[in-house]
Amino acid sequence: MIARINSELSASNETSGVCSKLTLNETADIIVEDYGGEQIERIYKITFSTIPGNAKFWGVVSYDLNTEKLKIISSKFSRLNAYKDQAKCAEKSALASYCYCQKSNYLFF
């Protein structure tokens, strides 16, 4: 999920080079909620945090019990906490909720 977020940020003219690359915040909780599904496929809601900025997102994945493969179902990942001050360099972008402005490119006040 984080790789997809980073890919979208780097592919966009509005966010490439101004938003930081996000990584998993390994000290924060990762919440996995089992949404059930059919006997051969399970659906999970994953809530995770990234750094820098301690952004909290959630997305949905499916797990195929036969192939033991995960598939990301979510096309976008919803941000669960405020981000306005972290994304001022990309505030007009549709990807603003993913962005944590690089300090070298934007002054924080």
Number of strands: 6
CATH topological fold name: Nuclear Transport Factor 2, Chain: A
What about the largest sheet? 6 strands, antiparallel
Instruction: Tell me which CATH architecture applies here.
Output: Roll
Q: What is the typical, i.e. mean, pLDDT?
A: 92
Query: How would you sum up the global shape?
Result: elongated
Q: Tell me the number of structural domains.
A: 1
Share of β-strand residues: 25-35%
Distance between the termini: 30 Å
- Considering DSSP H and I runs of 4 or more, what fraction of the residues is helical? under 10%
Unreliable stretches: none
Q: What is the oligomeric state here?
A: single chain
- Helix-strand makeup class: mainly beta
Name of the level-1 CATH class? Alpha Beta
Radius of gyration: 15 Å
Q: What's the order of the H and E elements?
A: HEEEEEE
GO cellular component, one term: extracellular space
InterPro entries: DUF229 (IPR004245)
Can you describe this structure?
This protein has one helix at residues 2-11; strands spanning 23-24, 31-34, 41-51, 55-64, 69-72, 78-79. The protein has 109 residues and is mainly β. The longest helix is centred in the N-terminal third of the chain and has 10 residues, at 2-11. Strand 4 (55-64) and strand 5 (69-72) form a beta hairpin.
